[in-house]
Fold:
Amino acid sequence: MEEEDLEELGLVAWEAIGNKDTRLYRYRACIGRDNSVTLPCNAQSVESVTISHEDWNRSTNKTDFGDLDSAYIEDYIEGTK
Structure:
């Protein structure tokens, strides 16, 4: 049996067992000057990366500085969650 086929078979069997012990953590980090983040020592993978505020319309044909009303609305919605 090829090594890749053996790994695939092992992963399918592991999924079928169903007794995996996993934990999901929320981690808030500051971005360094070199745009890097130091992860905790128990981190094995990163599932997602998000920002703390909603994206708003930064370009519009109405104003020079974007749609500030949408920024206020998005910030309010996120603040009430």
In short: The radius of gyration is 22 Å. The chain has a mean pLDDT of 79. The first helix runs from residue 3 to 17.
